[in-house]
Amino acid sequence: AMAQAALGAAGLHFDELNKLRVLEPEVAAQTAQLREECRAFVDKTAEFQKIVGNLIELVDQLAKAAESEKMKAIGARNLLKSIAKQREAQEQQLQALIAEKKMQLERYRIEYETLCKIEADQNEFIDQFIFQK
């Protein structure tokens, strides 16, 4: 016991296996525990970084998917606008064609009425000519 006290005063200690140590057994145990806690902390930090990395990757993928869908929607909207404009142009062409055909119909009607009048006049003339003989 006295030898242990003398060694202790010199900063030397025996551990539970009776090996000579520079650190007190309690301090050595605390140091080992701290080392284990640090290792666990480093492991948890690495795991956290991995989780955050995965989360960032996922958010990136979602952002790309959202951007892609947005572009598709813009494309569809532009297509609909162009189809509407095409329909409008077609409708205007058809209205113009209808107006043209109506004018043509009116010309034909007048021409028909004129021809009917000429036919009636000629028939009357023929009838008079036949009755004169």
From TrEMBL:
GO annotation, biological process: cilium assembly; protein localization to cilium
Assigned keywords, A-Z: Cell projection, Coiled coil
InterPro entries the UniProt entry points to: FT20
Alphabetical list of Pfam families matching this protein: IFT20
Coiled coil (UniProt feature): 80-111
Predominant place of localization: other
Keyword Nucleotide-binding set for record: no
Coiled coil keyword on record: yes
GO cellular component: centrosome; ciliary basal body; ciliary base; cytoplasm; intraciliary transport particle; neuron projection; non-motile cilium
Localization of this protein: Cell projection, Cilium
Name used for this protein in its record: IFT20 protein
Species whose genome carries this gene: Promerops cafer
